[in-house]
Design brief:
Distance between the termini: 88 Å
Helix content: 40-55%
Low-confidence stretches: none
Largest sheet: 6 strands, parallel
Strand order of the largest sheet: 10-9-11-12-14-13
Bound molecules: thiamine diphosphate, magnesium ion
Oligomer: single chain
Shape: elongated
Mean pLDDT: 97
Strand content: 5-15%
Length: about 650
């Protein structure tokens, strides 16, 4: 490497070791090891305009090895983005610094996705690459023509999700996805020899990827490998052989550089070894100027792109797509009116399909899919033909049996913009993709999870397939809107609410079994309040029955029995505890009054329902695993029938 180019990379190294030292925590090894690769990427390949980090046709860069966050902060700063400033970097890992321990998409405009949970960044990038190809198919090269670059470590490639993600990318032929693997043979515990004997390159090749190797400290060799990746139509893995902590003379090549400050002495020795004389957080003017010039090409490309957009007949459509605003249109309104005219007795998964039929007709940006349960999740509509390698304009993704990969890809699609992803699996398998649902919520992304077979009501498949703790545990996740509608009207309302959330994901818990209609008017979206009085007591109110989804009709039956015994009972449909908790105190007090016995009914764990029933209320649910049997037998076995519940309430009331 010529001295000047090595010096440009050394700027990353210096910022990484100095920021980690100042914070007294962090990961210097990865940024120091991949500094040469990152410098080549920024200087010659990455399409970006630092003055507009959200330019729609920019390349996406994902630092999947999120622990190496200082690589992201250093490159964004050096390349001339407004943030992070050098003071932001000085405050690395401190409260309110945008330079958080791991990169956060909501902290810095130049960070495309939150990373840190290993493997997910790469899987998220797959979704970005899908969105790019889809929009390219619709708007052409003149408006959408960018790549997705990933820097991933051994950990990202070792995690199970890597298998799902690269399988999907290989199958869909996402040739504009390029993964630069920090092939340093080191993880936290030491050498990768401790834990793996895998031929990673053979695995990628077997999955339909193009594979290159290079010396990650030789810019010419890095360029050769990347050029080969660009020339190949398959997604590419570039194995960059690097030395972790490159430049730290006594610690490089060892896991000691992975996740701890190098120490003042070693940093001084590294400065000498690297020929870097500048003080901490000082970038020499010639180095700064060279880095600042990297963005010039992108600025010019951006200006040309602006001209093309201005002259494009698709301009307003494109801008509208990218704005992220989606509004249910005429087909949806007609569908809602039809529900009042002829209330259907359907499963809410079927009601979801019917709703989606209207929504996908109205809203072109909706892209559906399922993890191999299309016919069970009811996620495909006549408007959504398959998105394939041959035709990226399709709007339905056959994700295969890859729940985690699907969820991470949906995050990437939402983050990319221009598309609104929804995808289905069984609710019980929310656990398989939970870590990605968590990143949907943390990253404030509008992803809609269509989770069917939401209770023992699925019947004979038994306890492995019957969710118990899932609803409550998902409700515990911050910023995830869990909704469990009770009939077709509520299902439609929940879909409208899910699409209206521009800054959070939603999860629709839907039944396999048919449910009777409980709502007969659609003048107002009552689900918007989270919990509302579906039926008021006739006799003097003694009880409020709070139920969700399939148990709302059961609550109505229980109420009939209580009323027959002279005890007035309200029935509340608690579609979303999160939305209910967001209502004002007056609404909450009106729906859950202090002077009534509050009773919860949900075919899942009772854990947590005391939040609404209080300690003295009653909670009906299931606190064990389910069982394999026909649905009627199961509800009887678990005591979730009006005949079983009503007497217990009457007894509690002293009758
Ligand atoms: C899912 C997940 N598991 C564990 C960790 C903790 N962790 C952070 S970095 C790391 C080692 C990663 O090794 P590698 O990707 O090779 O990074 P390098 O040491 O080369 O920088 C681990 C286990 C994590 N961040 N995410
Ligand atoms: Mg490693």
């Amino acid at each position: 490497m010529t001295l000047p180019e090595r010096q440009l990379a050394n700027a990353i190294r210096a910022l990484a070791m100095d920021a980690v030292q100042a914070a007294n925590s962090g990961h210097p090894g990865m940024p120091m090891g991949m500094a040469d690769v990152a410098t080549v990427l920024y200087s010659d390949y990455l399409k970006f305009d630092p003055s507009d980090p959200k330019w729609a046709d920019r390349d996406r860069f994902v630092l999947s090895a999120g622990h190496g966050s200082m690589l992201a902060y250093a490159t964004l700063h050096l390349a001339g983005y407004a943030r992070p400033t050098i003071d932001d970097i000085r405050n690395f890992r401190q409260l309110h610094s945008p330079c958080a321990g791991h990169p956060e998409n909501f902290e810095l405009a130049g960070v495309e996705t939150t990373t840190g949970p290993l493997g997910q960044g790469l899987a998220t990038a797959v979704g970005m690459a899908i969105a790019e190809r889809h929009l390219n198919a619709l708007y052409g090269d003149e408006l959408v023509d960018h790549r997705t670059w990933v820097i991933a470590g051994d950990g990202c490639l070792m995690e199970g999700i890597n298998h799902e993600a690269i399988g999907l990318a290989g199958h869909l032929g996402l040739g504009r996805l390029i993964v630069l693997w920090d092939d340093n043979k080191i993880t936290i515990d030491g050498s990768t020899d401790l834990s793996t004997s895998e031929d990673v390159k053979a695995r990628y090749a077997a999955t339909g990827w193009h594979v290159e190797s290079c010396d990650g400290h030789d810019p010419a060799d890095i360029r050769r490998a990347i050029d080969a990746a660009l020339a190949d139509s398959r997604p590419s893995l570039v194995a960059c052989r690097t030395i972790i902590g490159f430049g730290a003379p006594n610690k490089q090549g060892t896991s000691a550089t992975h996740g701890a400050p190098l120490g003042a002495e070693e940093i001084a020795a590294a400065r000498t070894a690297l020929g870097w004389a500048a003080d901490p957080f000082v970038i020499p003017a010639d180095v700064a100027a060279a880095w600042a010039a990297f963005g010039d090409k992108g600025k010019k490309l951006h200006a040309d792109w602006n001209d093309r957009l201005a002259n494009s007949e698709k301009k307003s459509d494109f801008n509208n797509r990218l704005s992220g605003k989606v509004v249910p249109g005429d087909a949806f309104k007609a569908y809602l009116d039809g529900l009042v005219a002829e209330p259907p007795k359907v499963a809410t998964r079927k009601a979801s399909e019917n709703t989606l039929t209207a929504l996908t007709a109205d809203i072109a940006s909706l892209i559906g899919g399922s993890a191999d349960l299309t016919g069970s999740n009811n996620t495909k509509t006549s408007s959504t033909k398959a998105l394939t390698k041959e035709d990226y304009s399709g709007r339905y993704i056959y994700y295969g049996i890859r729940e985690f990969g699907m969820a991470a890809a949906m995050n990437g699609m939402a983050l990319h913009g221009g598309v609104v992803p929804y995808g289905g699996t069984f609710l019980v398998f929310a656990d398989y993709c939970r870590a990605a649902i968590r990143l949907s919520a943390l990253q404030r992304q509008r992803v809609v999870y269509v989770m069917t077979h939401d209770s023992i009501g699925l019947g004979e498949d038994g306890p492995t397939h019957q969710p118990i703790e899932h609803l409550q545990s998902l409700r515990a996740m911050p910023n995830l809107l869990v909704m469990r509608p009770a009939d077709a009207v509520e299902t439609a309302e929940c879909w409208a609410l899910a699409l209206a959330q521009q800054d959070r994901p939603s999860l629709l818990a839907l039944t396999r079994q048919n449910l009777p209609p409980v709502r007969h008017d659609v003048t107002k979206n009552l689900c918007a309040k989270g919990g509302y009085r579906l039926r008021a007591a006739s006799a003097a109110r003694k009880v409020v029955l709070v139920a969700t989804g399939s148990e709302v009709s059961l609550a109505l039956e229980v109420a009939d029995k209580l009323e027959a015994a002279g005890q007035g009972a309200d029935v509340v449909s608690m579609v979303s505890t999160q939305l209910f908790d967001e209502q004002d105190a007056a609404w909450q007090a009106d729906i859950l009054p202090d002077d009534a016995l509050i009773v919860s009914i949900e075919a899942g764990t009772t854990f947590g329902w005391e939040r609404y029933t209080g300690r003295h209320g009653l909670r009906f649910g299931i606190d064990s695993f389910g069982a394999s049997a026909p649905i009627e037998d199961l509800f009887k076995h678990f005591g979730l029938t009006a005949d079983a519940i009503a007497p217990q309430i009457l007894a509690k009331l002293g009758n």
